[in-house]
Amino acid sequence: MLRIRRFEEKAAELYSLGKIRGFLHLYIGEEAVAAGALPAFTAEDAVVATYREHGHALVRGTPMGPLMAELYGKANGCARGRGGSMHFFDASRKFYGGLAIVGGGLPIAVGLALAQKFSLLSPAFDKGEHQGRVTACFFGDGAVAEGEFHESLNLAALWKLPVLFLCENNLYAMGTALARHQSQPNIALKAHAYAIPSVVVDGMDVLAVEEATQQAVSSVRQGNGPYLLEYRTYRFRAHSMYDPELYRTKEEVAAWKRRDPIATFEKRLSELGWLTDDDVQQMEDAIAAEIDDAVAFAEAGPWEPVEDLEKDVYTPTSSAN
Fold this sequence. Notes:
Layout (H helix, E strand, L loop, with lengths): L1 H15 L14 H7 L8 E3 L5 H7 L3 H9 L32 H17 L13 E6 L6 H12 L4 E7 L2 E2 L2 E2 H4 L5 H4 L7 E5 L3 H16 L5 E6 L17 H8 L3 H11 L5 H24 L21
């Protein structure tokens, strides 16, 4: 969690300096979700995330250097500088976005899960370690208002697909409070309309996230079909760096900050005697060095040549046509 927090704080600093441009949606405050949930998935599982995905990519294992370079728009970024903050991508780790469209990852996750199921049904497929693969689909509370949410849950349930729907409910769809756009603000209940089991989880508690996710993943792996978890969390920063944040009070933000997932977890470990001030300082030093290296990697990275502008975008017309 601390590694995610420091990476994002540095990204905000670099954005203010003009090193990073475009959109930047920070995950600060929500780190317990990515940190607690993703270890439940294996390297064979697929992961689909939202545009607030820096933490997910870090926990999934993508090195910090290519992630920072992607924020810079450099060719040595994880998406060759073409995706930027909202489109981290790492096929080698089955991390399929980083998707900027609200709700856009839901049908993609259903497609990946369908492919997983077809692979297992094929007699020519060597099941072995691939048995029980699942797809993790992260999305925000704003995505629940999209048609893709309902279509995806319905198909996943009908086809009994191995997909775990993971809602990061931070209470605001951009600047709209949940109760202002949902007549039923209990998102977990919506899964019941599609005969999908669901659980509400304290998204500010990394251990609660870990426990609930492990149980849900186990159910999906056993062939029981889809599952939905609603992580109730909170972002401490504005929706994006452009957001004037006029839709919530400073008092509300301050109240949630008292539940900072990093501070509360550190306190818990310290009280158990498992973490000392020296341990924290060593982590801080190691993370600071890693971030310095990542910034240097991004700064030294090349820009994509102008002649590659249309590469992978347009298919040249064949002379035979």
